[in-house]
Design brief:
Helices cover 25% and strands 21% of the residues. With 255 residues, it is α+β, with helices and mostly antiparallel strands. The protein folds into two domains: 11-96 and 134-237, no CATH class; 100-130, no CATH class. The strands form three sheets. Strands 1-2-3-5-4 form a five-stranded antiparallel sheet. Strands 6-8-7 form a three-stranded antiparallel sheet, with no helix packed on it. Helix 3 (194-207) packs antiparallel against helix 5. It is globular, with a radius of gyration of 18 Å. The N and C termini lie far apart (43 Å).
């Protein structure tokens, strides 16, 4: 039996994710579950007025591949029931795990977790935003710095049963201005590891070759130049940066 062509085989819609700000559908290609985001369902934002969110999702997958850390699930562009859009393999996360959490401050874990910020909930109780202290999540934080992710919410991190962490929803990325908004600030000031430096170097080298040529069909020249500059700054600093600029450092809502 010939292998299923994920680009040309029929994509059937099976449901809609109603919590998403842009049109997002569950679907299947044969018996393979996927997420489908048609370009026609994108809503322009003040800082991303030109749309192209599907192209940014595709670009994020390509950069993830060059980093070599399998952060973004397999992603591709294709036609679908509502026109061209981004399609991504569905990932079934482990409901017993959570890489990011909001907990009562007096019950915040002391080991194995990083504390990001404190605040008060709707009832006035002190709460703390925490995320796990793991190599997988560190790599995702580096990835977000590279792609300038403006929307790394807690629910955009999928905790897999084997300990792997996938990142999804990368439409608000690659802006030429600094836009980093993330819940993953726990390693602020920490030095990059050799693995993290090597991953950034792979992206920098790729931008001078095949990665750069492919991204030219998805991003503007200015955005690709900004991507290269971010990689260079990260390698020069050799550590996790602090929040900067006038924008909020975390997305809202956090989840």
């Amino acid at each position: 039996m010939p292998a299923l062509d994920l680009v040309t085989a029929e994509l059937t819609l099976t449901g809609r994710i109603t919590t998403a700000s842009n049109a997002t559908f569950l679907g299947s290609i044969g018996d393979i579950p996927v997420v489908y985001k048609p370009i026609a369902g994108e809503s322009p934002l003040w800082d991303f007025p030109d749309g192209n969110l599907a192209h940014r999702e595709m670009a994020a997958y390509l950069v993830s591949q060059f980093l070599g850390w399998d952060i973004v699930p397999q992603t591709w562009l294709r036609d679908g029931p509502l026109g061209e859009g981004m399609v991504q393999l569905w990932q079934e996360q482990d409901p017993a795990q959570s890489a990011v959490n909001l907990v009562a401050t007096d019950k915040a874990p002391e080991t194995g977790w990083k504390h990001v910020l404190e605040g008060r909930d709707e009832n006035g109780r002190l709460v703390t935003l925490v995320h796990e202290d793991s190599p997988a999540l560190r790599r995702m934080a580096v990835f977000d710095m590279v792609i300038n992710n403006a929307d790394r919410k807690g629910d955009h991190i999928l905790a897999m049963a084997d300990g792997h962490r996938h990142g999804v929803d990368h439409g608000l990325t690659f802006h030429s201005d600094h836009k980093l908004r993330t819940v993953l600030w726990g390693w602020l000031g920490d030095a990059l590891t050799a693995e993290e430096r090597d991953g950034i170097d792979r992206v920098s080298e790729g931008l001078n070759g095949g990665l750069g040529r492919t991204l030219a069909d998805l991003l503007s020249a200015e955005e690709i130049e900004s991507l290269a500059a971010r990689c260079a700054r990260l390698r020069l600093a050799d550590r996790f940066p602090a929040p900067s600029g006038g924008m909020p450092a975390v997305p809202w809502p956090l989840f």
